[in-house]
Design brief:
The complex is a heterodimer of chains A (470) and B (311). Chain A has 470 residues and is α+β, with helices and mostly antiparallel strands. Chain A has 14 helices and 21 strands. In chain B, helix 11 packs antiparallel against helix 12. The longest helix of chain B is centred in the C-terminal third of the chain and has 39 residues. The chains are: A alpha+beta (470), B mainly alpha (311).
Chain lengths: 470, 311
């Protein structure tokens, strides 16, 4: 049995109607999608064994034979139709599958997805847990209450959920990918990080998420181990370009920041300095480095040239969302002070922080963006296209918008797409300087001595396929 | 006599109802003034403007504050506390589920605080300024000064991690209640001990007790019967007041020990802008606090008949 101490209790186990990101970590073990993503972002088979575009807006998928849901129903094209059409209309599901017009049942094991418009990254979006295929019988029986009665085809099946106490999953012995070695998984919500660690120390948990960074060095001496693995979530300092319109000033700020010093001083190996890219390095292949080099003297000269001496700016950041946000920002504050910029820290609880970003009530902002569909193009579409909800920078650049448009028909995994993404990255980071990438974050867990093979995915999910205890 | 008591109780209940009304209004205004959008909290970062507007309408948060408040009061008198913005569960059920846990925790903590606190206070008062009194007074001073949060962490790291006596977290078994109850009891225990000591000393110095001593009544009887009875009224008052500290402490204790109580859930609800839950939780705690104080008040009047005349 693997007992996992989580920072937050789940709110919903209905993937396309998830409420908090932590919901998906649980749901991901219960459900499979048509396709899945490998750690480097390539698309691999899951419930579909083959797929191909029929034309620009139609995709055909062949389903795996002999797969059954946890309730004994068998997986067929009709089940895929029900699940995906429901997900495409759901609050969270529509963010990834909204482009889906309808699902056509060709035969028992063949479906066609008809899209509203060309959208090459549909494959990526189908890897996100919101696109998990649910048992149609369970959907019919429970309706929206399926959030408490999830039935999928995944490696683990739902057993019981005692609110705020524990969520119990059991191994699916008939899993198409082979039955997992673990017989049982429990998710136990314990909001206080030090209590989670104490519970791990007393042996009443086998795994905990987000141990306090201060505790990481001491884990080994008590027989515990840290699991620190790449996470596809770049953390960046963003500019509201309406408030800081002079690109020279933005460039100077980028030049003033020593990312390696920031990571060394505060994150102690729990992040990678983002000196060479905005996009998660694992997803970039051989793309050329992108970034503005650390050059405080150059920064001062550029500020002088722009007539922006004695500048005073305000940054909006959340109290505790990514990792040691306030401490990181204090280092940034000190580095900016070196070039004569006064940075005022406007620290807010996470709801108020995000609202300020949405309202564009910022000069600078602190944000981490998860590439949870393993598609770097998604970042540029959602965060840097003119008028996008999450365009916190208020960037309005025709060259960026044109390339974002080209992404729609550039095949995932193609060189053409990689070149577009690379150019977008250069435009956003070096040319328009809408953001300064600071670091690439990591998934952070601690495990007991007898836990082997516990892994995470860049999309912030758990990989328990090789996990054993004792 | 009874009629006077009844009309007193009726008056207090009316004041309580009025207080709940004022509190709900304040909570309403404060929540409304807090930055952050419940629809946004529910839909997440990819929500579109249209869908946000729809959800705001669905939740009724697009209405003017007064309209929302009147509707809320209308539902409230019918016993309807609404549903959670976040997970759609009926708030009344959630409050019942979490309130029950908190009530057990608070009652256990209070029982420990009253029994041990008064015990310590009486022992101290029996030997004023002796070595035992000195030791107890220092301990009590520590108890008043220790932050609840820290106390919980210390207990976990020793009693759970180092010695393995109790579980570090959770709720449901008798073993799991010990550490949180002791954590939560610490502050009120110390306050009750101090009050008991000082009012016992005052009572012991009274002429009444001196007379009893002159009649050679045994010291133990004087202490536990006559002096304690005299000292009881202020102790009862301070016990009633401790429930306020208990509510504040419960939020921290529940968070530290991962207990599914009303305090921890309220913190989560505030952060996710789940207004119906926050409102209901505040009403619940207000009613609990006022009810306990009313009970203490009545007890006080029963202990000290002089109080009844002033009603």
């Amino acid at each position: 049995m693997l007992r996992i101490g989580m920072a937050a209790e789940a709110e919903s186990l209905d993937p396309p109607n998830f409420r908090i990101s932590s919901d998906l970590i649980r749901a991901d073990l219960i459900f499979d999608g048509l396709v899945d993503a490998a750690a480097d972002g390539t698309i691999v088979p899951a419930l579909a064994t083959e797929w191909a575009p029929v034309d620009e807006t139609t995709w055909e998928f062949k389903l795996r034979e002999g797969v059954t849901f946890h309730d004994g129903e068998s997986l067929d094209a009709a089940a895929v139709e029900t699940s995906l059409e429901r997900a495409a209309a759901a609050d969270q599901g529509s963010a990834y599958l909204g482009v889906l017009e309808d699902v056509e049942v060709v035969d028992d094991l063949t479906v066609r997805l008809h899209l509203e418009r060309p959208y090459a990254a549909i494959l990526n979006n189908l890897t996100v847990p919101v696109a998990g295929i649910q048992s149609p019988a369970a959907l019919a029986e429970h309706g929206d209450d399926v959030s408490r009665h999830p039935v999928g085809t995944g490696p683990f099946q739902f057993v019981e959920w005692q609110l705020d106490t524990k969520l119990v999953l059991a191994a699916n012995p008939d899993y198409w990918g082979g039955a997992p070695a673990l017989d049982r998984v429990e998710f136990i919500p314990i909001p206080e990080a030090s209590t989670r660690l104490s519970a791990l120390r007393t042996g009443s948990l086998e795994v905990i998420e987000n141990p306090s960074p201060d505790e990481i060095p001491g884990l080994g001496s008590s027989g515990l181990a840290a699991v620190v693995e790449p996470k596809a979530r770049p953390i960046f300092l963003g500019f509201n370009v309406e408030e800081i319109p002079d690109v020279r000033v933005r460039t100077a700020i980028a030049m003033a920041l020593d990312k390696e010093a920031i990571v060394d001083a505060v994150l102690e190996g729990l992040g990678t300095p983002a000196t060479e890219s905005l996009v998660t390095p694992e997803f970039r292949g051989e793309a050329a480095a992108v970034g503005i080099a650390y050059d405080p003297d150059g920064a001062k000269a550029l500020l002088e040239e722009a007539g922006a001496t004695g500048l005073s700016l305000r940054v909006v950041l959340p109290t505790e969302r990514y990792l040691r946000d306030t401490a990181v920002m204090e280092v940034i504050q000190a580095q900016l002070a070196e070039v004569g910029i006064t940075l005022e820290l406007d620290i807010r609880d996470s709801g108020a922080w995000y609202q300020a970003l949405l309202d564009r009530d910022t000069e600078l902002y602190w944000l981490g963006w998860g590439l949870n569909s393993y598609d770097p193009g998604d970042l540029f579409t959602r965060v840097f296209a003119t008028g996008a909800v999450n365009n916190m920078s208020q960037l309005a650049a025709p060259d960026v918008d044109a390339l974002v448009g080209e992404l729609e028909s550039a095949a995932v995994g193609s060189e053409e797409r990689a070149a577009i993404v690379s150019e977008l990255e250069r435009l956003v980071v070096e040319e328009h300087v809408a953001v300064v990438p600071i670091y690439h974050s990591k998934n952070l867990f601690a495990v007991a001595a007898d836990v082997e093979g516990f892994h995470t995915t860049p999309g912030e999910m758990l990989d328990l396929s090789a996990t054993t205890v004792g | 006599m009874w009629r006077a008591e009844l009309s007193y109780v009726a008056k207090r209940v009316a004041v309580t109802a009025l207080m709940v009304l004022v509190v709900t209004f304040v909570v309403f205004v404060v929540l409304e003034r807090t930055p952050g959008d419940p629809a946004q909290a529910r839909l997440g970062q990819n929500a579109t403007e249209e869908r946000l507007a729809e959800v705001r309408a669905e939740l009724g948060v697009d209405q003017p504050l007064v309209t929302q408040y009147v509707r809320f009061l209308g539902d409230l008198v019918q016993g309807d506390l609404g549903t959670s913005y976040l997970n759609g569960r009926p708030v009344a059920e959630e409050i019942a589920r979490t309130g029950q846990v908190s009530a057990v925790l608070a009652t256990t903590a209070m029982a420990i605080a009253v029994v041990v606190g008064m015990g310590v206070g009486i022992v101290s008062a029996a030997h004023p300024n002796g070595w035992l009194d000195g030791l107890l007074r220092i301990t009590v001073l520590t108890g008043v000064s220790i932050p609840v949060f820290w106390m919980g962490l210390i207990l976990i790291s020793f009693a759970a991690v180092r010695w393995g006596w109790f579980p570090a977290y959770g709720w449901g078994t008798p073993q799991q209640i010990v550490l949180p109850a002791v954590t939560l009891a610490t502050f009120p225990l110390a306050v009750i001990a101090r009050m008991t000591r000082s009012s016992m000393l005052e009572a012991l110095g009274s002429e009444h007790i001196r007379t009893l001593r002159a009649y050679a009544v045994p010291e133990r009887v004087i202490l536990l019967k006559y002096a304690l009875k005299q000292a009881l009224a202020p102790i009862a008052t301070i016990i009633g007041l401790q429930f306020g500290a208990l509510i504040a402490g419960a939020i921290l204790t529940e968070s530290v020990f991962g207990i599914p109580g009303i305090g921890r859930l309220t913190v989560d609800a505030i952060l996710s802008r789940d207004h119906p839950y926050v409102r209901a939780a505040v009403i619940f705690t207000t009613v609990a606090y006022v009810t306990v104080n009313l009970a203490v008040d009545l007890l006080y009047r029963w202990i000290d008949p002089r109080q009844r005349r002033t009603a």
